[in-house]
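Page 37, continued from 36.
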């Protein structure tokens, strides 16, 4: 029994119970991503492989921490000894900032619009990175859409300008305008992630009725020549009702463009509260298909410097977990 089976089981389980006292540095809170607004998370790692554990009292997985940072993770019959990783901002080794913690759109799977949070000032973003500078290798920015897609892009570009002095690779994941890839590239951004989210245009339209699917595809296509193969990413949620064949076709399409898909297990929250969490067999099949296609295309997600492909806490990432 090894890492892959345990991570698959934990991702399918969703939540993790903590039996004992966590070290002070351990708990991360999130204002974006699958755990936005939740009760915090812990990162457990074994030999450089990592899983994000959403803390939940009734969770099927159990983490038993010890005072020295060692810990045992158990899910059903599976268990491994590892370590609890310190977080930078949101995740280990990165200062991952959600610039605007609100969104005028209402994508059904996303909890960010429900938070109605505020926008961080440029100075706040600089201070946040400064506070964790000694324990991060990268900066990542994401954002809801506070006013408009264009206005948000403009604001995030201001934040990027202010953060360049840290000399760290910067990754940006926002909803793109047609000019976003070029603008971010000119600012020296290292990597971008524009999220397709759904495997098909029809599923996207059903969950994000006000956003254009094709805009994301166009931005991804425009980004590959600018940022390079292996440095452009797109989240695809697994479990929104797509068939296995549809998911594979989406993976094939993205990889064919030179984009690295990040296969994100659905977290049934917000308007998707009634959906089932994808099971471990489904996650395993999708990740193995992705591994094959990446290999054929000569693409390596392991080259990622920033954001989810570098973190891999929430996903079964073939370049690290298989
Ligand atoms: S995989 Fe992405 S969303 Fe998940 S903890 Fe890491 S950076 Fe955050």
């Amino acid at each position: 029994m090894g890492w892959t089976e345990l991570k698959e089981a934990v991702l399918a389980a969703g939540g993790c119970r903590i039996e004992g006292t966590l070290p002070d540095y351990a708990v991360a809170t999130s204002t974006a991503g699958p755990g936005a607004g939740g009760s915090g998370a812990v990162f457990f790692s074994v030999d450089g492989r990592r899983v994000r554990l959403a803390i939940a009292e009734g969770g099927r997985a159990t983490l038993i921490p010890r005072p020295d940072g060692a810990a045992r993770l158990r899910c059903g019959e599976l268990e491994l000894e590892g370590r609890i990783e310190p977080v930078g901002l949101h995740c280990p080794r990165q200062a991952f900032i959600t610039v605007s913690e609100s969104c005028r759109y209402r994508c059904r799977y996303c909890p960010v619009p429900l938070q109605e949070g505020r926008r961080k000032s440029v100075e706040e973003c600089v201070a946040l990175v400064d506070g964790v500078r000694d324990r991060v290798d990268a900066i990542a920015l994401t954002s809801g859409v506070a006013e408009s897609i264009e206005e948000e892009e403009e604001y995030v570009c201001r934040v990027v300008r202010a953060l360049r002095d840290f000399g760290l690779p910067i990754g940006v994941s926002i909803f793109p305008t047609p000019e976003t890839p070029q603008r971010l590239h000119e600012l020296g951004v290292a990597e971008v992630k524009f999220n397709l989210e759904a495997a098909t245009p029809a599923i996207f339209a059903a969950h994000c009725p006000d956003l254009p699917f094709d805009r994301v595809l166009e931005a991804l296509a425009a980004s590959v020549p600018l940022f390079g193969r292996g440095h452009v990413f797109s989240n695809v949620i697994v479990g929104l009702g797509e068939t296995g064949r549809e998911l594979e076709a989406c993976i094939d399409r993205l990889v064919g463009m030179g984009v690295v898909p990040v296969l994100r297990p659905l977290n049934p929250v917000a308007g998707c509260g009634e959906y089932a969490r994808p099971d471990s067999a489904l996650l395993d099949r999708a990740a193995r298909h992705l591994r094959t296609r990446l290999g054929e295309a000569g693409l390596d997600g392991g080259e990622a410097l920033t954001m989810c492909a570098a973190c891999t806490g929430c996903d079964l990432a073939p370049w690290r977990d298989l």
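The pocket of iron/sulfur cluster is lined by residues 33, 52, 90-91, 96, 307-308, 311-315 (CB under 6 Å). Flag for discussion at group meeting. The CA atoms of residues 91 and 312 lie 10 Å apart.
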